[in-house]
Records
---
Amino acid sequence: MRRLDQLLANLGYCSRREARDFLKKHAVTVKGQAVRDPSGKVSAADVRIDGEPLDHPDGLLLLLNKPLGLVCSHEEREGPRIYDLLPERWQARNPQVTSIGRLDKDTSGLILLTDQTEFVHKYTSPKHKVPKLYRATTDRDLSPDLIPLFAAGTLVLDGEDDPCAPAELRLDPSTPRTADLVLTEGKYHQVRRMFAATGATVLTLHRTRFGRLTLGKLAPGEFRSVHEDEI
Ligand code: URA
């Protein structure tokens, strides 16, 4: 049970201060009874707003196909943000919707977003080794020697103390400058820096998988709601 004004504010309907006005403007019921007092304790499942159940009252977990050119930071001065793609009410949620890990501005593909802080901690923790699959294209042909190098778990990136965890590199001889790389961790700019450590520059980078989740038919900029069990 939560105070109604708190619940409405958490879900982005209005601020706590605006709750009394919100109740005047909208038909809000709890177990079918009209409510005017925002301070009463309610169960989210019992609340209807203008006849509709609450919008994702148990929290959001979204899979977004991140387009190129958007940032995962909340800072507007860093450029257009992935959060601007979301409905306004979701942007107003508190806790705020944030990405689980980050993709660079110049990286596209699968990213998870949530307002559930425990998911952010869980899935960015080094203890939680979720495999993430990236497709990279590079400025030069990739040698099969990179496969054991990345798999060894001994590659130390510039400025890091600890080596990268073993990573699986898959090369396709028909496209010698394209590779798939599976990482179970997420160091800053890790894919670009791993290739840079071998002398190659990553030209394009796209994430296609996070655990068992894939993009499916989502176009860039589109998102869908997912359940944690699907990861
Ligand atoms: N590695 C990178 O270099 N960039 C990303 O966006 C993700 C992984």
---
Amino acid sequence: MRIADIQSHIDHELVSKERIEELINRTAEQVSRDYRGKNPIMLAVLKGAFNTLAALSQAVTIPVQIEFMSISSYPAGKTSVSEGDLDIRMDLDCDVRGRHILIVEDIIDSGYTLHWLVEHLKERGAASVEIFTLLDKTSRHEVEVDVKYPGFAIPDEFVVGFGLDYDEQYRNLDSIAVLRSEEYMDPTQEQDHQDQGEQS
Ligand code: IMP
Ligand code: MG
């Protein structure tokens, strides 16, 4: 059980809370302009994007509808979780036909999750589907994702904070950081963890 102060688990900070706030405010101005009069749906995929959705939705000056989805992946026989088939565990609460949707994401890695989600929402009849992502591991993309509101491009390092977890911890950190190597589980436990196939 990790009991020490959260800061003592961190190796180095990648994006400060001030820079996150500045990005969110700048994006909120654009979103408020672009979606004025459209009553958009702001949609987050649980759990990682909950904090970014909360921050962006409070920074915009227009009315928005807040929705969440939970998505599972089944990586059996695949080399990564993201290559698995994606499946909805908890659907959003409304009919999206004719609606303008802004997906708010924590991070893009391979891009499989968002690639699938954008197509899925369009098939269900959304009028438009755009993306804001807080972080983007641009060197890791395996499929093309069109991001209208880009956040911070980061290197291929595992990060936590501002909603992002490692083993369900560190989501409450108010910046983006890389953990000290001692915090990671040994590789055999890590495998068990990934086999659960949860999106987060
Ligand atoms: P993608 O389908 O490969 O783009 O998966 C993106 C998802 O993987 C994110 O929404 C996160 O849940 C998870 N993820 C990817 N990189 C990280 C990371 O560095 N820290 C925490 N979660 C991550
Ligand atoms: Mg996510």
---
Amino acid sequence: MEKKERLQEKIIIALDVGTKREAVALAEALKEARVFKVGLELFTAEGPALLEEAVRMGKKPFLDLKYHDIPNTVAGAVRSATRNGVHMLTLHTSGGKEMMAAAARAAQEESARTGKGRPILLGVTVLTSLKDEELRRIGFAHTVADQVLRLAVLAKDSGLDGVICSPHEIEIIKKECGGEFLVITPGIRPAWAAAQDQKRIMTPAEALGKGADYLVIGRPITGATSPHEAFLRVLAEIMGSGLNI
Ligand code: C5P
């Protein structure tokens, strides 16, 4: 695969819109983007038909529903997602080892059974909306930083492929979990984009330079006058940074 194609797979577009019409318009406009993140709002509104439509358009759906339930139920959801052609999905690592291991087994088995690709399973550690004080209130004894690391290691031991984390946690997670363990990071802002409500941001090249395997980018691309131009600009910014991708 060429460098540009590898990069196209690494930049995930967050489809934070409420309707299939808006989502499809963005996916059509973003001709060169391959992976699209569908979250709770869009999936709750439009359901799995949207995933089928994405696959039909030659796009790869990233289903960000953050599964968190008993192992049997999460395994069932992962089997359904696999049948729907989901490329990546998220689950809460605080669901525990048994839940994550059941999800990993389900993805493997359903992929073998159906011949569809096995989805990449990504753990959510601590929501960035939670601070140390709130963690204590819900009964966790550790700081956010310790808890993130602890859950990342547990995710790896349970058979997940990687975790979602802040760009500032990439290096420590890679150090603890190894280079093969995937790290996906939002909080990305190209040098030319506004930070909006994101606080601890990095540019795409900085995050990739620190070892991120995938970047999730929403508004700097989807909110641009021309999302297509903005996507190409992000690609050019990374290609021009001299990074060895
Ligand atoms: O528009 P923006 O680039 O800020 O979008 C980032 C995407 O990543 C959104 O879908 C947001 O929900 C998600 N995300 C995040 N921070 C986290 C976890 C997920 O921004 N800690």
